[in-house]
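name: query_chain
kind: protein
chains: 1
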Amino acid sequence: MRALASSIVTIDKRLYSSTVDLDTLIADVKQIGMLQDAVDPHYDIVELTKGKIADRGKFKLVKNDFHGGRNAPETLNALMMAFRSELNDGNVMQRSGMTGAERELRMAGSRFLAPAGASELAKVGLRAGAVEQLDGAERLERALDRVNELDKGYNPVTGAFYGDVGLDGGHKLAHAKHHDASARRDNMMFESKYENRAKGAAEGEDIKSRIKNSLMKRLKSGEISPLQLVNTVNARGPIRNRF
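structure:
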């Protein structure tokens, strides 16, 4: 619905332009809708109508806050999938090359993401203020990486679905152990904010211990049932017996 609302605003404004070209208008609205669909529900896109002339008609991003997701299925799935990933030594999932749909989405982002919108996504996983050290082209590329990630809707390391739970910036290789990779573009990703909090700055066996403790607290307090927990993930093999 948000994408539709953005598209309607764009149509309304541009139909009154004396230079409007219907084919161009349709293409623009499609790309704007693609962009909103990709980042929804975690961000809304907001068209810029003031400020620099070059940025007008482009979009900034407003992050949506999510509350009450501590025991949501997506949270339990994220924790269980992170635990399973650590059982496999934290191996990154194998991903295929870029698809035509992904290329089209990157084109949409390149056209319609304003610098402020690009910065909002480019800062994911970076230390506070670090995004200011990146040039505009690098910010945009990092932002488009995150747009594609949100569009896919799952953690690129563990495979956990993002869903309607808040996200934090994360790293494929943890900062505590891999300082040299900490700010690398290909090391950035989103992850569930509850997974992020459970892991903290831990590594290896400590991550497994922290995730296990986080889940066991929920079970012992009666916040969740064992059946709820195992139903949130396709738990093959010995993972069910690891607690």
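note: Residues 235-243 have pLDDT under 50 and may be disordered.
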